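Journal club prep — side note

Before the paper discussion, L.F. wants everyone to see what a predicted structure for a comparable chain looks like in token form. Sequence:
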Amino acid sequence: MKRMTGLLSLSILLALLILLIVWPFGTDTTVQQAQPNPSHDSLVLRFGYNIPERSALHLAAERFKTAIEQHTSGRVQVQLFPNQALGNDHQMLEMARQGELDLLLIPSAKLSTALPEMQYADLPFLLPTRQDMYAMLDGEPGRLLLEKMKRINMVGVTFWGNGFKHFTANRPLKTPSDFAGLNIRIMKSRLLRDQFNLMGAEAVPIDFHETRQALLDGVVDGQENPLVAIHSMRIHEAQTDLTLSEHAYLAYVFAISEKRFNQLPGHLQTLLLETARALTPWQRIETERQESEFLAEIQASGTAVHELSESQRILFQQAMQPLADRFETTIGPDILAYTREYAVLKHPRENRWLIGIDTDLSAVAPRLGLEVKRGVEIAVQHFQRSGTMLTPDVQVIARDNRNLAGRSNRTLDDYARTPGMLGIVAGIGPTPSHVNQSPSQQAVPIINPWLFSDVSEQGNSLISLAAPADRFATQLISDLRKRGIKTARLITETTAWSENLTHAIETAAIKSGITIEAKAILDPEYPLATQLEVQQETVDAAILVLYSRLLQESLNWFADQPRVPLLISAIDWTMPADGPDVLSMQSLRQGSTAASVMEAYRKRYGSDPLSTSTLMLSHDAAWMLLMAAVRCEAGLHENMAQALKVAPCEQVITDFSFAESDHRYHVNWYLAPAYKLNDGTRGTP
């Protein structure tokens, strides 16, 4: 018995000794994220984010850590720093940019100051379902967004997320009109402010951690957040109603410090990328699983939960469309065009008409390409409100050709095979001179409305509203002679469009007796001022044959010069109030239709068009397609090709002439003062 007592006493003493050794005495007894003890030969990657340990994002990060360490047999170890252990989002981002933090999970909204395009997932009611948003973030739009992380010295890998946002208030919010007169809490964001203003609400920026108290105090009437935030901050206890709207996604970007990434061997780079991407579906599923638990607890607390019907979602989508239009240049016309096409084709409706657009939205002249798209959209809007509707649904889809003939040909072929396609508007890019006459394409008319084309013959599929380059150049030089111009300088660039037109202008100038004293071929890789600084007083006019960003930059340069020759732009370009006087080639009829198009443009997009002639030509191309479709629907013609072989219909804006003998369209161009923003007036010939 004494022996057993002695053994027990010895065991107790040993246990106490072990406890003294391992127990972390001190004032801070917080349990920290367990981290491995790295060996001297191991590589350690630090991974920081703002989310607490319970979240699906943290659980996915743990799986990422485990997978990397297992695949490398412990040679690479990942240290996790959740819950802002290393600082807030902005501090961690700066650490990662400097190479002081290796891996980062950060809300896409927190990147919007440096990368405004990252507001993409914040656009409300952009897509019908959450699966559609996942498809876009995992597809081309997501790839384009992640590529932009290079601008801030980061490698964008994939999009994880913290759930979709929902509305809460002390009443149901099931239609846009339900928001009228309410004060809604938002994080500081112009996009979010405009979102609620469009619905008649007042947006009030308030810090997230102060939101619940602001709701209790009546400072604001409602807010938007994912279920994880609503539950964790007990917002549902301060609000009587939750509307499950799923209207925007709180996306998180999984990113790697570019400085650190470039130091890693190729096989490890691939492992990091593939592991993070492979975990993306699991992370989303886990978020949805947690959301179902949160929702059950919220409902059990007595909060009334409402779901939107399909018709109510459509009302919100219609109310929010101006937001996507106004942020198009911020987020990217190419990104939103891809999203729009996906949504239209993935969710088809009966008796639907389509107009397809093939134009440059990202490469050489994206802003002009955008005016082509917007001209078509305004025409469809005009058509839908004109009372001539014989079909309930007309949709516009556009693709970015990136100024590449191969992409254009693929687009034309895809569009020709798409049910309901009325025709294709060929915008900026190689389409007009690279039409692949496959059997599928010949069935769908293609209208080239932009400025000039070298296509000499119009077949059954291609209808050119534009003049050949030599006719366009002859008219320009003729107008210059009438103005007494004897000497000129050409400023051009190395694009096929500019080179062709420049050659035509030089030929026309020689025939007319105007001397081209100098020609500058601008290179965007070199300083613009160096290329433009020549003797200006020796010429009467400077002819700008530019349509890329070099046009605006050249005009800005001339605006700062003490002595400026007469400026001529082959492209009709809107000038700022303090910009130099410019003559541009135009083809517009003054009238009520032109005025209504300009008014509709300003109301829808919140600005003036960059190139009014480009806008109006595209509007007319789409209007002609729509009127031809109406004539076919009424039984007046057998097909679109026949219906288009008639004189231009009323309500077109461009100054057309039409040859009945060969059913050819001709645009009448002239030089006139470019549009200026100061008084909103346009010159006349």
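L.F.'s comment for the group: DSSP finds 23 helices and 23 strands in the chain. Keep this in mind when we get to the figures.
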